[in-house]
UniProtKB/TrEMBL annotation:
Keywords: Membrane, Transmembrane, Transmembrane helix. This is DUF1361 domain-containing protein. The chain crosses the membrane at residues 12-31, 37-57, 69-89, 109-132, 144-162, 192-216. The keyword Membrane applies.
Length: 225
């Protein structure tokens, strides 16, 4: 994701990828008169929110002398919205049975585009926050933040997909979400833990691959000075 030395601009790439993905949905609506995948556009908007927050924190909170309360409040809000980015992968649950028709293949490729874009947005926003934490607290705490964020993100994806809570609920109705989360032990804890762990290792693997492809090492990134 680095833009040093090769002239690439990840933000421009994300915008173009977003426009392309939205165009896929719009074209499908006009072609089939079916709006069943319109929700993807809203989910994609939510996937952008953590990146916008991380960019704001990088712009206004990168210096240590900035208020710690303001900075970590921003990190908390980012963490609340972070699961929305990789959550797009779970939208494959809406994919209809593949029947060999052109519409089915189109839907599959469209969902793949949204899923990949969600993973990229989430990865890049996490990378920006990891760089900031490393500057303030060093590599070890930045790594703990990295793994902890992915684990909490995995739990958040479960709450969103199966318990139908969203990020706004955690901000406006935190006690309801907490109460629901604490009662999960009555609804099959082994299955819940299995989903969270599988999601955690999946995201860890994907983000590790993306880090390797982007040439990111130990917190290096496009905002390093």
């Amino acid at each position: 994701m680095s833009n040093r030395g090769n002239g690439t601009n990840p933000h421009r790439t994300f915008v173009l990828f977003t426009l392309f993905s939205v165009a896929l949905v719009v074209f499908r609506i006009f072609y089939t008169s079916d709006q069943s995948y319109l929700y993807l556009i809203w989910n994609l908007f939510l996937a952008w929110v953590p990146l916008w927050i991380s960019m704001l924190l990088h712009k206004y909170g990168s210096r240590k002398e900035r208020s710690a309360i303001v900075f970590y409040s921003g990190v908390f809000v980012w963490l609340v919205f972070f699961p929305n980015a990789p959550y797009l992968v779970t939208d494959f649950i809406h994919f209809r049975q593949l029947d060999g028709g052109i519409t089915a293949w189109y839907d599959l490729l469209m969902l793949m585009c949204f899923s990949l874009l969600g993973l990229l947005l989430g990865f890049y926003s996490l990378h920006l926050l990891r760089v900031l934490i490393r500057r303030r607290h060093g590599h070890f705490k930045a790594s703990m933040f990295y793994y902890g964020s992915i684990l909490l993100c995995s739990a958040g994806i479960y709450l969103g997909r199966f318990q139908r809570w969203n990020s706004w609920d955690l901000l406006v109705r935190p006690m309801n979400v907490l109460s629901d989360a604490l009662s999960l032990e009555d609804s099959g804890m082994p299955q819940i833990a299995g989903f969270i762990l599988i999601t955690f290792f999946f995201l860890l693997f994907v983000y590790g691959v993306l880090s390797g492809l982007a040439g990111i090492r130990g917190g290096d990134g496009p905002y390093e000075r």
